[in-house]
């Protein structure tokens, strides 16, 4: 948080505590809507309610609601009267309005939808797309022009166009059936003779997406082609929406956060909602219970080797390091594969190469760590054979762990499951099991030579 | 990877294998530069060399080099003749050119810098900024106009301006000292009478950054204010560069990847370079060795309790589950804090609240897992007291793990160290140690009642 925001936050909190409504109203009026929106991340629900109630300007309120998470937005909006809700929703991009309404109790949601649907025929259509697709994040307020207009006419249209069209920097060109046929930049419009028809200026090779494309793929596309917006077309190439780069940035941040939460075995849902501790615990627990059972299985396997263990009690001292290191190496490889899939740098055609690379890296690191641990074991317990056992087991466990770290996410990806589910906890539990098996198998094998 | 790219990749690889240069040249000519750049992620160094050699168009070659990683770019460019290198570098944004030259052998780099510095006085200046700052990613080709120009004159300037100015959508307005005084959009220019001076149209409240601002902070700013570009100004408010949203997107992806690598205990350097297995192993090993020693310490602590262990051998079976679960819970909390710091959702003013929340969540999950494990222990070993010991130890270990997961990254952040270094391996090793201590302390305490 930058200092400016920190000062603003302190002031706001103080004024709320004191109930100094007139002063707070003045602060709200003088502050950039983006800064007001940022404040909401640091306030508790009650403070959020007070602050939101003081935003008199429907446009500012709409801006704030578009920026904060939709469930919080729904909660805040419900507190207001019908008339106010309606005014604010009208100021919002329809896609955000729909997402907020989706988070309200069913009855209220239906009522509001029927009210705003009167003015916006596209609401029904927006509701039909999944939240995580191009259709779910697109804006339907598009500025498009017919291909037969001249440059001068286009500029006149632009001057007449309403203020609330989302950022105009590309002008989409359509034919008489509203099919997307080209694109041009505002700048191009200015640098041609006034009588030139748009179809002679436009680039007809337009990058566009379908409404059912996953939002993550849309983000890849925008990042790859360095474009500021991408048009959304239906199966007949009819222009139905536009996704701008600021939406793409939000998607990218959200997906990166989700992946990181999932990799750590936390639930990605909790990333964007202010859930209670019980709800969060309930979201994380299923995965933990799976790992708990995995841990019990590991313990059971150890138990099977209790004769070996009872014979050479020194073996027990190396259990944590063998399982722990296997988990670490597996986690490294898994993170690289999961992130690679997410950014498009890794796919099945390059997976083989990556697998062998991670195996080589795992082997090199395994040999170094194995030798180190063998030295530790030798000097600690004065048993050369114990050194050999822990060294060999450590090297083998790390090689297997690196292999598993690549294969587990790839396996889930192949099944059509999000590879981030092959999270650290999963890979670690799997590697605990293989690590213990490798360790005790090696120990049992060398048993006759262990004193 | 989308299907179109997959087909292109297969074709390219086949043509390279066959040495079918004329066909491949034709493919290169017909393909979008962004797609050619994407291909380079999937080719081995030799294939990259062949393909790059076939790009006849200096503009396309420059585009490709701007998109792929700078060390690969430097390697490919070195293969060409001086004249060609020069032509290509001239087509590139200066910031990218500088970054590529930085990756070349010193002698060649100096030679190239002296060649291109002749045409571009800003190169020396660009070299003085750190790669990860606003100065390092900004472009110095800026389109700015004097505040006293009229709207009509501004449009004329725009028409005359060179093609290679980076995307124009904001026009920055400066006074006679080249100090930034305002900003306006192309669209605003079109909607006012032709004689209006720019200073009457422009917004004078411009969001700008200093060249030494960290690139991650720049990305936050752009994301927060939904802007398409941010101007870079020096201490006297003189306009020296511009950072566009496409650069910001690259920064965001790169930072998210780095954080994920670091969280997994892999090195963030390897994310963007095609290093050999040995180099990667060397980068990851220091961290692993630290964890190896942590694992040995854990083992040593267990060893101190070997009398307890020898008395109740059943205790050994629950070691992996106690340490493993502590590591998982700690990793979840750590991921949430690290990501929170990166996105700005968490900071020291909200940390206390988050800590107590994670502790509550940890306690709830600890009680559930503790009860489950107590049940397992009871039914497996038919010892109620063993159940009590593992249950209590598990609950306590999970509570401590959640606490540690929040405090460790916060501690590093406070020290001014990247909090992502409080990675899973670190938190897990720390939690292995506390987990073992809690477990055996509990067991020793209850020893008289354990059979």
Overview of this protein structure:
Two copies of one chain form a homodimer. Chain A has 451 residues and is mainly alpha-helical. The first copy, chain A, has three domains: 3-132, MgtE N-terminal fold (Alpha Horseshoe); 144-245, CBS-domain, CATH 3.10.580.10; 268-449, SLC41 divalent cation transporters, integral membrane domain (Tetracycline Repressor, domain 2, Orthogonal Bundle). Helix content of chain A is 67%, strand content 6%. Chain A is built from 22 helices and five strands. Chain A has helices spanning 3-18, 21-30, 33-39, 45-53, 58-67, 70-78, 82-91, 94-102, 106-119, 122-127, 134-137, 151-160, 186-190, 198-201, 215-225, 245-263, 277-304, 306-311, 319-343, 348-381, 384-414, 424-446; strands at residues 144-146, 170-174, 180-185, 229-233, 239-244. In chain A, the strands form two sheets. In chain A, strands 1-2-3 form a three-stranded mixed β-sheet. In chain A, strands 4-5 form a two-stranded antiparallel ribbon. In chain A, strand 2 (170-174) and strand 3 (180-185) form a beta hairpin. In chain A, helix 6 (70-78) packs across helix 8 (94-102), helix 15 (215-225) packs across helix 16 (245-263) and helix 17 packs parallel to helix 22. The radius of gyration of chain A is 29 Å and the shape is elongated. Chain A starts with a helix and ends in a 5-residue tail after the last helix. Chains A and B meet through helix 12, helix 13, helix 15, helix 16 and helix 17 of A and helix 12, helix 13, helix 15, helix 16 and helix 17 of B.
């Amino acid at each position: 948080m930058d200092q400016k925001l920190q000062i603003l936050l302190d002031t706001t909190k103080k004024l709320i505590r004191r109930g100094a409504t007139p002063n707070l109203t003045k602060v709200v009026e003088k502050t950039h809507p983006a800064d007001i929106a940022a404040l909401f991340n640091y306030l508790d629900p009650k403070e959020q309610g007070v602050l939101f109630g003081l935003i008199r300007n429907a446009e500012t309120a709409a801006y704030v609601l578009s920026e904060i998470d939709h469930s919080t937005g729904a909660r805040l909006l419900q507190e207001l009267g019908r008339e106010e809700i309606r005014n604010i929703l009208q100021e919002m991009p329809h896609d955000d309005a729909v997402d907020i309404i989706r988070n309200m109790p069913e009855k209220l949601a239906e009522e509001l939808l029927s009210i705003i649907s009167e003015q916006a025929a596209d609401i029904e259509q927006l509701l039909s797309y999944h939240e995580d697709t191009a259709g779910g994040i697109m804006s339907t307020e598009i500025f498009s022009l017919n291909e037969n207009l001249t440059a001068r006419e286009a500029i006149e249209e632009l001057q007449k166009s309403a203020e609330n069209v989302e950022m105009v920097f590309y002008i989409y060109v359509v034919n008489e059936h509203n099919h997307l046929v080209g694109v041009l930049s505002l700048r191009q419009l200015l640098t041609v003779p006034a009588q030139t028809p748009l179809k002679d200026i436009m680039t007809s090779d337009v990058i566009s997406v379908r409404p059912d494309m996953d939002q993550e793929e849309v983000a890849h596309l925008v990042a790859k082609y360095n474009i500021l917006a991408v048009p959304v077309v239906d199966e007949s190439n009819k222009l139905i929406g536009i996704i701008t780069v600021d939406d793409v940035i939000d998607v990218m941040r959200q997906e990166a956060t989700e992946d990181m939460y999932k990799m750590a075995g936390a639930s990605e849902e909790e990333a964007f909602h202010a859930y209670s501790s019980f709800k969060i615990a309930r979201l994380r627990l299923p995965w933990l219970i799976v790992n708990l059972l995995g841990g019990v299985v590991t313990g059971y396997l150890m138990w099977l080797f209790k004769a070996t263990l009872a014979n050479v009690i020194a073996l027990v001292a190396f259990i944590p390091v063998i399982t722990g290191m296997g988990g670490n190496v597996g986690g490294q490889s898994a993170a690289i594969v999961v992130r690679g899939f997410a950014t498009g740098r890794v796919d099945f055609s390059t997976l083989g190469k990556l697998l062998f690379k991670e195996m080589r890296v795992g082997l090199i690191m395994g040999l170094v760590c194995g030798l180190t641990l063998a030295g530790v074991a030798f000097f600690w317990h004065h048993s050369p054979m114990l050194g050999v056992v822990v060294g060999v087991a450590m090297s083998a466990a790390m090689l297997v762990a690196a292999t598993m770290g690549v294969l587990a996410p790839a396996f889930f990806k192949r099944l059509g499951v999000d590879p981030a589910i092959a999270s650290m906890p999963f890979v670690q539990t799997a590697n605990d099991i293989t690590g213990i098996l490798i360790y005790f198998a090696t120990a049992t094998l060398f048993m006759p030579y262990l004193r």
